[in-house]
Design brief:
The complex is a heterodimer of chains A (about 450) and B (about 500). Chain A is about 35% helix and about 25% strand. By secondary structure, chain A is α+β, with helices and mostly antiparallel strands. Chain A folds into three domains: about 40 residues; about 270 residues, Rossmann fold (3-Layer(aba) Sandwich), CATH 3.40.50; about 130 residues, Jelly Rolls. In chain A, strands 1-19-16-15-2-14 form a six-stranded mixed beta sheet, sandwiched between helices. In chain A, strands 3, 5, 6, 8, 11 and 13 form a six-stranded antiparallel beta sheet that branches. Chain B has about 500 residues and is mainly alpha-helical. The longest helix of chain B is centred in the first third of the chain and has 36 residues. The radius of gyration of chain B is 24 Å and the shape is globular. Chain B starts with 6 loop residues before the first helix and ends in an 11-residue tail after the last helix. The interface between A and B is large, with 57 and 54 residues.
């Protein structure tokens, strides 16, 4: 039987049906995406009403915490690629205590300046911090990678160090069944059988004399740690210890023990210069520090003080593309900042905002609708706690930047539309360094 | 509504847009197909006019998909049309051969220039530390397919297996036939050309089988493949070191489904549309992941390519006629070049080499264990393990096919090898379950009984036009639904 006529009828019928559906969809403006997606007229119909804009959603929902006027002030005061302290005049030096220490370091009046860079997966693999460290050490002296955990599945990916390890049992922010005291890295290690960590620090030369510190809590008993083959007996009841175990020449470290509790990690440092510690912990939002023991933090401040504490969080607050209300985050985050601030009275705190993150809306990658709210909350937190602020989102190029970074050749960001890659992170690291140097030069000018 | 009609946008629809090239799921294709079908039907008894219409539509389709590269198709059609007729008429063997060489060299040069120049520059730079700048040449859509079709055509004519077509529009149609232009299958002239002058009479069976092929093809390509790509494969293959072994493992399984659904889906659509237009093109994929061994896999995977490679590369190299060692070498060389055909990078060559080695080993193994396996090979348990092992070997090779480079492929393997833990399964399932269901669906499609699809398409025949339309609209809505579904984002598990 010849079915050709029916084939043509079928093609006509389907086209007509799709056409009618599209007309009805255009006239009645159904807000049902599956239907809108098969609208065969959508390419030739003018888009009439703009979609829900980011500004309106931001202004209407979160007035309670950051009102429109305040947002405007924040926007005016915080320039991209600069540090802002909202409570002081822009002509003043931001993160002044830290800058003064840098000046002392440069003049030789001080031996070390230490930066703790706390963050989430954005700084995994030593991203951003490796650039900041390199540039700071070039400018102010020093070498060495700073803090390293005793084991990390991601450690192998660092381009700044080769790490291999075995047999450590880790407690951390996410799993801590015995409620042990965690370091500010969010981790703590113990060993019940022969455990080791091998490190080759690629930021130092084999001819450099490199100080190797062990960071640990109360040992509970005498423990034996071998560092590069030399045995050390350690016994301490202090909740935090930073003990120099080796200062020999060489950029490698082999740490072994058969039994030990409450080890936090090691720190590899030059005798003089800048140390930048990378404390990355994926998936967290920074609130974890609000629950930390104040006396423990104070002990760190006393024995291994940090001169600048950077807190880079925020992107993990997005669970769904539609998320745009993060009010719940404000209080615990400010509590966390205030706790750190109180425990490290001689340090400056720098809040680094979330980087841009995009989701697919209407089939196109666009900045998450909640991003302006998140940035405003982080600015407000910086303002309320008297911390400095660096706007990563605006420094990257603001709205739509991560999508542009992904599309660039070579790409600057990964296809999760969330993480800048090594090239992108280098740009951010350099920008933060430049922002610090801007304050440094301002201070030098003022001192003249 | 009519006031909102955008005349500029409407007119622009007729031009090539690099950001929105024509695909089967564009709104524009619906109109183009509609106009074409109606005109084709009206002109069905005027063979010359309907062939010209078909050529024009195909070239226009090509223009909308790839811009002015359409000129390349026309030029290469003219060149091979003239050359093939010259080969046919030429009486002297050595002149015949010379003409054939001209045809092969010119086709391969065209392919090489567009596909491999940058790769060659990269190799030169790496080997001799030169600093030549890559030319960043854009790859014309479909060039790998139509250059191969040209070559097989002139070779067949040279061997006297085929009398070249006398009418240019028939040759142009063979080359540019729009359903298969972008992603194959690779069609042979001797199968295709005789069908051009057949009366346009579609049976109910043709219609329903064509419909079934088109719908399943669209489903595989637009729903399964696109969903898994967007929601898992893209970002994990982009930065495998950031993800756990479990995520990497499923990204590899996911990609195995993606590449199958993409390629075979496109082939199904092409074969289905061709069927509606009165052309029968043999199947290009036959449930490849249910193969018991790698040799069987290549009999089921991208059949039009593997048979092309067999007939125009493996056999001319000597096939199995020049001794065992030479046969293994021929297999290996064929697969190596087959790998390179898929893309210009060492990864593809390595992928081809892995398959080449596996085919050679399988041949050895088959001969060595002939007697023992005769008994075993019928048992269900053997078959199960054979399928699982073959599938996993193919998946392992896909890692090199898809990864950005060797380093990235190494990272995927290392994550699976060293960081595969199952205590994160609940979190993993919680986040990715919709993608996993799609993966299982894609693999599950392979294990429907062989005659199942025939049975379904046979049952389809009972539906009237209204029934077919209802199924089509349901599919369209499902497509719309998945296109707008909320994206599954990575969760960055602790591992």
């Amino acid at each position: 039987m010849d079915y050709t006529k029916n084939l043509i009828r079928f093609v006509i019928l389907i086209t007509a049906l799709l056409f009618i559906i599209s007309i009805v969809d255009n006239v009645y403006k159904f807000n049902w995406k599956p239907l809108n997606n098969i609208n065969i007229l959508s390419d030739i119909i003018k888009k009439e009403t703009p979609k829900k804009t980011i500004a309106t959603s931001a202004d209407s929902i979160q007035v309670a915490i950051v009102d429109t006027a305040t947002r405007r002030v924040f926007k005016e005061f915080s320039l991209p690629n600069r540090l802002t302290e909202y409570q002081t005049d822009a002509t003043n030096v931001a993160i002044k205590k830290f800058i003064d220490k840098l000046i002392e370091l440069k003049k030789g009046k001080r031996k070390k300046v230490r930066i703790a860079y706390l963050g989430d997966s954005m700084i995994e693999e030593d991203f951003i911090t490796q650039t900041l460290r390199k540039l700071m050490q070039q400018e102010f002296g020093g070498y060495g990678i700073g803090y390293l955990p005793l084991s990390s599945v991601l450690a192998g990916e660092r381009s700044t160090a080769n790490i291999s390890s075995s047999n450590w049992v880790e407690s951390n922010f996410k799993t801590n069944p015995n409620k042990v005291q965690l370091f500010i890295s969010g981790r703590c290690f113990n060993a019940t059988t022969n455990a080791f960590t091998d490190i080759k620090d690629k930021t130092a030369l084999p001819t450099n004399s490199l100080e190797k510190y062990l960071l640990f809590g109360a040992t509970n008993k005498e423990i034996n740690i071998s560092i590069n083959g030399i045995n050390h007996s350690i016994n301490s009841n202090n909740i935090f210890n930073a003990t120099l175990l080796d200062r020999s020449v060489g950029s490698t470290l082999k740490l072994e023990t058969s039994s030990a509790d409450n080890l936090f990690g090691v720190s590899l440092e030059a005798p003089q210069g800048v140390i930048v510690d990378n404390f990355s912990f994926r998936g967290i939002s920074g609130n974890e520090f609000s629950k930390m023991d104040s006396s423990f933090l104070a002990s760190i401040s006393k024995n291994h003080s940090y001169d600048l504490i950077v807190m880079e969080y925020g992107v993990n607050l997005f669970v769904k593309p539609t998320d745009d209300n993060f009010n719940w985050f404000y209080k615990p985050f400010t509590r966390a900042i205030n706790k750190i601030k109180a425990s490290f009275p001689n340090s400056n705190i720098l809040i680094v905002s979330s980087a841009d993150r995009a989701y697919k809306y209407d089939d196109v990658y666009q900045t998450a609708v909640g991003m302006p709210n998140l940035i405003a909350l982080q600015q407000k937190a910086a303002y309320e706690t008297g911390s400095a602020f660096y706007n990563t989102f605006e420094s990257m190029g603001g709205n739509g930047s991560i999508a542009r970074w992904v599309d660039m050749l070579p790409a600057l960001a990964y296809k999760d539309y969330m993480h800048p890659n090594s090239r992108g992170s280098e740009i951010i690291g350099k920008s933060i360094f430049d922002a610090i140097m801007f304050e440094y030069k301002k201070a030098i000018q003022k001192n003249k | 509504m009519f006031s909102s009609f955008d005349t500029t946008a409407f007119l622009k629809q007729f031009l090539y847009d690099a950001k929105n090239p024509l695909l089967f799921n564009n709104g524009f294709f619906v109109y183009l197909f509609f106009v074409f079908m109606v005109l084709y039907y009206l002109l069905r008894n005027n063979f010359k006019a309907r062939t010209n219409l078909f050529c024009l539509t195909s070239l226009y389709f090509f223009y909308k998909a790839s811009g002015f590269f359409v000129v390349l198709v026309i030029i290469s059609a003219i060149a091979d049309f003239i050359l093939s007729n010259a080969i046919y008429k030429q009486k002297e063997q050595h002149k015949k051969k010379l003409l054939l060489i001209v045809s092969i060299v010119s086709n391969l040069s065209l392919l090489f220039y567009f596909k491999y120049t940058d790769f060659a520059i990269e190799i030169l730079n790496n080997t001799f530390s030169t600093h030549l700048n890559p030319l960043n040449i854009l790859l014309p859509v479909g060039i790998s397919f139509y250059t191969f079709e040209n070559i097989s055509y002139t070779v067949d004519v040279y061997k006297g297996e085929f009398v070249p077509v006398k009418k240019f529009n028939e040759y142009l149609l063979f080359l540019s036939f729009f359903p298969k232009l972008v992603m194959g299958p690779i069609v042979r002239a001797r199968d295709f050309v005789p069908q051009i002058s057949q009366p346009f009479n579609i049976t109910k069976e043709d219609f329903s089988e064509g419909f079934f092929l088109i719908i399943t093809g669209l489903f595989k390509k637009l729903i399964i493949s696109d969903y898994i790509t967007l929601n898992l494969v893209n970002y994990i293959f982009d930065a495998p070191e950031k993800y756990s072994g479990l995520e990497n493992l499923f990204a590899v399984y996911g990609y195995a489904v993606v590449i199958y659904c993409d390629f075979s889906g496109y082939s199904s659509i092409a074969i289905g549309i061709a069927r509606w237009l009165g052309f029968k093109i043999p199947p290009n994929f036959i449930s490849p992941y249910q193969s018991l061994d790698i040799t069987e896999f290549w009999r089921r995977w991208h059949i039009s390519l593997s048979s092309w490679l067999r007939d125009y590369l493996y056999i001319p190299l000597g096939g199995n006629k020049l001794g065992k060692i030479r046969q293994y070498f021929n297999l290996f060389a064929t697969m190596l070049l087959g790998g390179l055909w898929h893309g210009a990078s060492l990864n593809f060559i390595f992928w081809g080499a892995l398959h080449g080695i596996a085919l050679a080993i399988h041949k050895l193994w088959g001969e060595a264990t002939k007697n023992i396996m005769a008994k075993w090979s019928k048992s269900g348990l053997y078959k199960f393990f054979a399928i699982v092992i073959t599938f996993h070997f193919v998946c392992f090779c896909w890692i090199f096919f898809k990864a950005k480079n060797f380093k990235s492929a190494g990272e995927i393997i290392s994550q699976i090898q060293h960081h595969l833990v199952f205590n994160i399964w609940n979190q993993f399932w919680g986040n990715y379950h919709s993608v996993l269901i799609m993966i299982f669906l894609g693999i599950g499609l392979h294990f429907l009984p062989e005659n199942y699809s025939n049975k379904i398409s046979f049952k389809f025949q009972k539906l009237g036009i209204i029934g077919f339309s209802a199924i089509f609209l349901l599919f369209a809505l499902a497509y719309g639904f998945f296109k707008s579904s909320e994206q599954v984002m990575p969760i960055y598990l602790q591992f």
